[in-house]
Amino acid sequence: MTKIDIRPVKLPDDKQETANHALARVRTYLAEHQNASQIRVNVQDGGDREPLVLPREVVELLASLLAHLGAGRGVSIVPSDAELTTQQAADMLNVSRPFLIGLLDAGEIKYRTVGTHRRITASSLLEYQRKDDHRRRLVADELTQLGQEMGMF
Length: 153
Fold this sequence. Notes:
- The chain is of the alpha+beta class.
- The protein has 5 helices and 5 strands, in the order H-E-E-H-E-H-H-E-E-H.
- Strand 4 and strand 5 (117-121) form a beta hairpin.
- This is Helix-turn-helix domain-containing protein.
């Protein structure tokens, strides 16, 4: 198993403005070239300019990264098939390891065992997170509706 480092990268305050400026330029380019499946970027290395061709999806991901970093948030990139330890998965969900193990034992999150250790794929963790967010939204909507019916809002 390849070691996965999920520590977020966060830009220092003085570099956030640079990220926001780059984000504006990338978004403008993407908006002006909506049909482009590949994006040509000029990379300046010393005195030479070398064209670099990137798939549009990569540039869109770069824009998303720049948006988060420019807003001062930390960002981690984890491949969807990466296998995480229970501690890494708990850290990603911002819950305790014992709480995560309870979710695993309850069948809420898919995992596999390697010897005596549990391994969770990033994709199954994100699937759980999406379902949990959806359940929370439904409950919040229901509470709002009940509050309105009772004249509390």
